[in-house]
Amino acid sequence: MAEKIIRNKKFIFTDHSLKRFSARRINDELFNLAVIHGRKFYSNGAEIYFVGKKEVEKARKLGIDLRSAEGLNIIVQPYGDEKIVITGFKNPSLKKYRQH
Description:
The protein is an alpha+beta fold and 100 residues long. It has a single domain (2-91), classed as YaeB-like fold (2-Layer Sandwich). It has 3 helices and 6 strands. The chain has helices at residues 15-23, 28-37, 53-61; strands spanning 2-6, 9-13, 39-43, 46-50, 72-79, 82-90. The chain has a 6-stranded mixed sheet with strand order 1-2-6-5-4-3. The N and C termini lie far apart (36 Å). The mean pLDDT is 93.
């Protein structure tokens, strides 16, 4: 498993997440953009980092281009002080996270 530290948080990548990232062309830069500039929320016990239109527009005003990360979802399982990266994919909708 690989790991990365972003803003004093340790992210550990599972083999599954690395395979999914590779297949879906999610590179280190996209991952970093999502974690640093994305919206963070919780759903079903997991942390979700999401880059939507609002985040792209907010970053644009700061001179940061997030367009390549728009729609990116990074699913993370908190484990103590570490975060286990489960998977990542692009989907611009948050509908699947809504509670009914």
